[in-house]
Design goal:
The chain contains four helices and eleven strands. 19% of the residues lie in helices and 43% in strands. The strands form two sheets. Strands 3, 4, 5, 6, 7, 8, 9, 10 and 11 form a nine-stranded mixed β-sheet that branches. Strands 1-2 form a two-stranded antiparallel ribbon. The protein is α+β, with helices and mostly antiparallel strands.
Length: 209
């Protein structure tokens, strides 16, 4: 299996070299990533979709995260990031269907693991997307939930502790309904500033629509 090479950059985005994913995270090298957030609408309310990371993932298994996201390989451009949506969720979109929301710095530091990302945020408003339409990549994604965007915004702003999430998880017996309250500890530990910038930028876009 070919070893994935990732372009390394400075904090400002200037190309600084190429390294393996393991080296990038061990040395804490800045790199660029593709993040796509998907919103659907139900009875006029925007719903944000979160993926549940597979228990087989090396990093942050069993936690809720960005709808679809991934690293950009050294030979790729940011437009190639849309492959993550199809690979993880089975949803074929073009880059032109996404709304860019800018770049946010996102750092996660754990013993032996430092993830420093220049995260390129994108939004897709799928008015009629249903969670049941997703076809998940089992080694990556274990389930999908939807949360009311306003509730998500309040969670990110620390105005509430938990929000309602509903959707499904994949089991050996097939898809099972999922419905419970989740809070920030149930999400991948991105910096709070990352979560807040995501919420602010999506809210701004929804208000402009």
């Amino acid at each position: 299996m070919a070893i994935e090479k990732i372009a390394c950059v400075t904090e400002q985005g200037a190309l600084s070299g190429v390294a393996t994913r393991e080296e990038v995270h061990r040395q804490g090298l800045w790199h660029e990533t593709f993040h796509c957030w998907i919103i659907s609408h139900e009875l006029g309310r925007p719903l944000l979709h979160l993926q549940l990371r597979s228990q087989d993932k090396a990093d942050f298994p069993g936690l809720f995260d960005i709808t679809a996201a991934g690293h950009i390989a050294a030979h790729e451009s940011m437009k190639d990031g849309v492959r993550e949506i199809e690979e993880e969720l089975g949803l074929a979109l073009s880059f032109e269907q996404l709304t860019p929301l800018g770049v946010v710095h996102d750092e996660i530091s754990l013993p032996g693991f430092t993830d420093r990302e220049r995260a390129f945020l994108h939004l897709y408003e799928g008015m009629h997307i249903d969670l049941a339409d997703y076809r998940l990549q089992p080694e990556e994604v274990a389930g999908m939930v939807a949360v009311e965007f306003q509730a998500f915004f309040e969670l990110c702003m620390r105005q509430t502790e938990t929000i309602d999430a509903r959707g499904f998880i994949e089991t050996q017996e097939g898809r099972q309904p999922f419905q419970q309250k989740i809070g920030l500890p149930d999400l991948v530990p991105h910096q709070l500033s990352y979560w807040q910038q995501v919420a602010i930028r999506i809210r701004r876009k929804l208000m402009d629509s």
